[in-house]
Amino acid sequence: MPAGIRALAHPNFRRYFAGQAISILGSWIQQVALSWLVYRLTGSAALLGVTAFCGLIPQLLVGPLAGAWIDKHDKRRWLLVVQGLMAVQAFVLAWLTWAAWINPAFIIAMALLLGTLSAFDTPLRQSLIGSFVGSRDDLPNALALNAMLFNAGRFVGPPVAGVLLGLTSEAACFALNGISFLALIVGLLRIRGVPPPRARGSVGEVFREGLRYAWQTWHVRMLILTLIVLNLTASTYAVLLPVFARDVFAGDATTLGWLWGAAGCGAFLSTLFLATRKAGAALVSAVAAGVLISAVSMLLFALGAWLPLALAAMVGLGFGISVCNVGINMILQSSAPDALRGRIVSFFTSARFGFDALGGLLAGFVASSFGAAATLLAEGAVLLLFVLVLFARRQRLREQLSAVREEQ
């Protein structure tokens, strides 16, 4: 296999990759349809923030303990169970919407349910990738390809969702997502191999062991802090996109799909860039540059009222956020001991999605009082200040990761 797709040489990873590609497309179609449904029914930027918060906050509250629980159990078996439950959630949401029973209370309840399931699903999938490729050297490439699927879904899914919303309804989009989960379930059932080792001890003991490692390892602490700041600020753009699409650019669901798709295009390009990189010290500069690009793109998007400029800024924002998030994931998983990988992944997903939830909730309420553009301007300025902190610590990060690589 060429270097950029070398992880696909592993049959188990190919099976996972094919199923995940279809499942992710369905998930993005549902996410866009849900945000449009909320804004169509209520016209409330605050409720957009609440819905995004409920969909992500379980990652922060449940995620760390979920990682300890995951490391004690059969990961592949429980991933199948969780995927089935997520399909049921999508079908129930489709039925409620089709029957015109949907309301803000039901939407929030469905978002909380999906968020809780995702708190187990994400670390389950991420921690299994190492066993699918069976090689630490190919793990960074597998993680980059997995992120490429997610970002390709961001690029293709929102425009498709915009077209589907114009031709059908939100209920149809939710039903399609439910069907898409079957692809990954079939792929997982075809996977054969030795399962990863399980941790011993109580869930509390396993959790404390992972927490000690994360807290006492400086590069892990610094990278988690970077995740928190980035996702508390830059990632909240997604909550406010329906406001920009309708009120700033005088558009509709199709406009929303193009804005979201532009960010997905940038994120997809970032994973093409990362797929040929090796994890470790070399990725530190890419992560720092990603934070800088995110801050500048946020400011350009907030200041512009011309749709082509906004689309270009969305490409830059998607690229910067993805380089940072995926790059940090590659560094953390490649440097973590195999026995601790599930817990390290859960800490990553908690910071990645939990603070995305808190940031989205905050952005929704601030935008209700001061406007969406002013909210993004303020968050972009905060992120720009953090760039100075990160660049000052870049060399220490590189040195520590080089030392870890030599020990391995």
UniProtKB/TrEMBL annotation:
Keywords associated with the record: Cell membrane, Membrane, Transmembrane, Transmembrane helix, Transport
- The UniProt record lists the Major facilitator superfamily (MFS) profile domain at 219-408
Descriptive protein name: Putative MFS family arabinose efflux permease
Q: At the top level of its lineage, which domain of life is listed?
A: Bacteria
Q: How does it sit in the membrane?
A: Multi-pass membrane protein
Q: Which organism is it from?
A: Azonexus fungiphilus
What molecular function terms (GO) are annotated for this protein? transmembrane transporter activity
- Source organism phylogeny: Bacteria, Pseudomonadati, Pseudomonadota, Betaproteobacteria, Rhodocyclales
The keyword Transport appears for this protein = yes
